[in-house]
């Protein structure tokens, strides 16, 4: 990785200073609000804190205000009220000082299909007036290597799979050393293999100390790669914190494995167990406050063939359902 040119490091002394304080949040918003001209309240009083070094999942169904928040954080649109600081600097006022330290992949990379992956990056790098042309080739080669595209660098971008295109977009975001990477739905539209590649890359970048802020509507994905998460619905933040803490706040599910699901469900309800759901070969429910062995005994006494009985660990999805009282729409 190259160093920032000295002149630039000096002119951006506040972001550099923020780097010295590892406790300073990389993103902090206070009552951040955006109402669009049409009257739509897209983001409503957001207080977001993204710790340095975290992989932060910004979670919410489509239309919950994630992209609007990211646009405000990147200085692309003005908030209606409230404030946002990125790398310790106020946005959008400090956009020019902050953005050189931030790599962003928002709404898919803009690529020229008729150019090779390498030529796309050379072109992209050349569009950056602060990038030294003498080190351009080395910079592009390093970025291609980073995302595992070195072997495919000479291929035209239009021949790339969606996952490769997304990795090329990431390479463009990584042409310079970054303190923060902002990825808007980075695995959208990718097949499972492509998703795995992007996740592995995110973990690798994070292990180098880059803070990664990624939006997603996939709970599973957030649980797999993120250390921290925030949950949005309808423009409001309903929870944020370490993923482990969010999950710990949710109760798991009581799971009874049995071929006699109808009888098991009836007995559980008789025992006062709430939220009984019948599935194939198992019945799940809210774990009761009373002694679990009594509930198990009641099932056995009623002639239910209990093949398995226990409380499953809560997932982030359980936490989300507990927070919102509704399921998570993963469509789209
Ligand atoms: N330019 C705009 N003008 C008016 N309303 C907008 C504009 N952009 C977004 N909205 C509205 O603001 C709300 C939040 O949209 P936003 O795109 O921020 O959500 P999102 O969580 O990123 O969803 P998605 O994943 O679908 O992009 C939605 O109701 C959307 O219709």
TrEMBL record:
<dbReference type="InterPro" id="IPR027417">
    <property type="entry name" value="P-loop_NTPase"/>
</dbReference>
<keyword id="KW-0067">ATP-binding</keyword>
<dbReference type="InterPro" id="IPR003593">
    <property type="entry name" value="AAA+_ATPase"/>
</dbReference>
<feature type="domain" description="ABC transporter">
    <location>
        <begin position="27"/>
        <end position="259"/>
    </location>
</feature>
<keyword id="KW-0547">Nucleotide-binding</keyword>
<dbReference type="GO" id="GO:0005524">
    <property type="term" value="F:ATP binding"/>
</dbReference>
<dbReference type="InterPro" id="IPR017871">
    <property type="entry name" value="ABC_transporter-like_CS"/>
</dbReference>
<keyword id="KW-0813">Transport</keyword>
<comment type="similarity">
    <text>Belongs to the ABC transporter superfamily.</text>
</comment>
<protein>
    <submittedName>
        <fullName>ABC transporter ATP-binding protein</fullName>
    </submittedName>
</protein>
<dbReference type="Pfam" id="PF00005">
    <property type="entry name" value="ABC_tran"/>
</dbReference>
<dbReference type="InterPro" id="IPR003439">
    <property type="entry name" value="ABC_transporter-like_ATP-bd"/>
</dbReference>
